[in-house]
Amino acid sequence: MLAYRHAFHAGNHADVLKHAVLVAVLRHMNAKEKAWRMVDTHAGAGAYALEAAYAQKHAEYRQGIEPLWSLPTLPPMLSDYVEQVRVFNPDGGLGHYPGSPWLARHLMRPQDQLRLYERHPTDHGLLAELFEGDRQVIVEHADGFAGLRAHLPPPSRRGVLLIDPSYEIKTDYAAVTDAVSEALTRFAQCVVMVWYPHLDTRESAQLPQRLKPIADAQASKGWLHARLTVAEPNDRGFGLLGSGLFVINPPHTLHEQLRLMLPVLVRTLGQYAGAHHRLEAAAGL
Ligand SMILES: C[S@@+](CC[C@H](N)C(=O)[O-])C[C@H]1O[C@@H](n2cnc3c(N)ncnc32)[C@H](O)[C@@H]1O
After folding, report:
1. How close are the terminal C-alpha atoms of the chain, in Å?
2. I need a labelling partner for 8 at 20 to 30 A (CA). Which of 45, 60, 105, 118 fits?
3. Is residue 98 part of a domain?
4. Does 89 map to a domain?
5. Which atom of ligand 1 approaches the CA of 45 most closely?
6. CATH number for the domain that contains residue 175
7. How many whole angstroms from 99 Cα to the centroid of ligand 1?
8. Which residues contact 168 (CB under 8 A, 6 or more apart)?
9. 97 with 65: CB under 8 angstroms?
């Protein structure tokens, strides 16, 4: 039984990092007329009400999107992302937060396609309702790791894969590396985004190290790894310290965009004096 509900975490620092990069990646895809297809293997509910009891429980968005919402100047990548969240809040206040499916749908053009997987019955129901009747979006109530095979490579050979599990079960880490390897075997040019939690655990530290050789061997345009650490490790060894994003075949502009954005996220979202970021790239990127 899946216990994780993204509604508890919507708009937190991890969503900020992941969604800012997603917006930048899709902007880059839109620079060419040719159609793209995005597969979101762990899609969540698609959209969240921040005033709802779930989001209010820990009010994580207060240390995520909220501090950015009122900043007068932001680096371009962050400003574009915050603008998307504003579009989702036409009343002007920060009452709702868009998930990756909504952001992708909003940036899609008529020729593009979105394939969504969500296994939690309630969140799948909400997602299916959000996109009911939308012919460009297919919502599956199934395992996204297995499902991605059916959609890669897309006929246009332009694609984005977002792998964003909840890592509720430790096997998710191995499932991620297997899925990335399989996706790149099918489609070496695919832009792959893997989100992972920065925890004080071996699995969390090893994931990017395991992805690097896979990307080095199989990807056509290298990789970038960005990690944002906002919270102080505690002596009990648990709790989310931050999060990381591993992007394979990144847009050529992403490295510089991240270089400008990450220090702003550290300053704005850092919860202790030691908050910091890390940005690494494949040789030659
Ligand atoms: C971190 S949330 C996704 C957030 C979403 N990608 C976003 O950025 O808005 C992870 C989701 O994966 C779902 N999930 C867990 N295991 C899954 C699996 N094997 N296949 C599909 N969905 C799964 C969970 O129910 C949860 O809603």
Report:
1. 41
2. 105
3. no
4. no
5. 27
6. 3.40.50.150
7. 11
8. 2, 3, 4
9. yes
Q: Which of 1, 23, 96, 118 to mutate to test the pocket of ligand 1 (most atoms within 8 A of CB)?
A: 118
Protein residue whose Cα sits closest to atom 12 of ligand 1? 42
- Domain membership flag for residue 266: no
Ligand 1 pocket: which residues have CB below 6 Å? 2, 4, 6, 18, 40, 42-44, 99-100, 117-120, 123, 143-145, 164-166
For the chain, the domain total comes to 1
Q: How far is the CA of 143 from the centre of ligand 1 (A)?
A: 9
Question: What is the pLDDT, as a whole number, of residue 3?
Answer: 75
pTM of the model: 0.97
For residue 198, tell me if it sits in a domain: yes
CA 144 to ligand 1: nearest atom? 20
Mean pLDDT by runs of 10 across the 285 residues of the chain is 79 97 98 98 95 78 94 95 97 95 98 97 97 98 96 96 94 97 97 96 96 97 98 82 98 97 98 97 89
- Residue 170 pLDDT: 87
- Enter the tokens of residue 59: 């009010």
* 181 neighbors 168 (Cβ within 8 angstroms): no
Full residue range of the structural domain in which residue 151 is found: 25-44+103-258+271-281
C-alpha 276 – ligand 1 centre gap (Å) = 27
Among 42, 118, 141, say which to mutate for ligand 1: greatest number of ligand atoms within 8 Å of CB. Answer: 42
